[in-house]
Amino acid sequence: MQKDEQEMTRIAAAVERYLSDHESAADSLENVMKWWLPHQRYVEAMEDVQKALDYLVVKGRVVKTTNSDGTFIYSSNHIKKIKY
């Protein structure tokens, strides 16, 4: 696994841990970085967090919706956990 992919999967795992503890959580990329990841003791670059969220969307672990203002909102898909 390449360094970028390892970083992305590490962040993805942190997002999943947060969602496991906060099943009704739903937020924008900026607020995921501000509230979810510091909660998990992570401070990440926006690009890395975006890659991790995109990865989780592709894997079906996170749902991405769009607000009326065009902001993307991410939330749990409430399905069985995957292993990293």
The structural class is alpha+beta
The H/E string reads HEHHEE
Strand count, sense and closure of the main sheet? 3 strands, antiparallel
Relative strand content: 5-15%
Shape: globular
Radius of gyration: 12 Å
Low-pLDDT stretches are none
Give the number of DSSP strands: 3
Q: Tell me the distance between the termini.
A: 12 Å
Number of helices: 3
Features:
alpha+beta, three-stranded antiparallel β-sheet, 84 residues, single chain, 3 helices
Question: Any overview of this molecule?
Answer:
- By secondary structure, this protein is α+β, with helices and mostly antiparallel strands.
- It is 51% helix and 14% strand.
- The protein contains three helices and three strands; from the N terminus they run αβααββ.
- It has helices at residues 3-21, 29-39, 46-58, and strands spanning 26-27, 62-66, 72-76.
- It has a three-stranded antiparallel β-sheet with strand order 1-3-2.
- Strand 2 and strand 3 form a beta hairpin.
- Helix 2 packs across helix 3.
- The protein is globular, with a radius of gyration of 12 Å.
- The termini are close together.
- The model has no long low-confidence stretch (mean pLDDT 86).
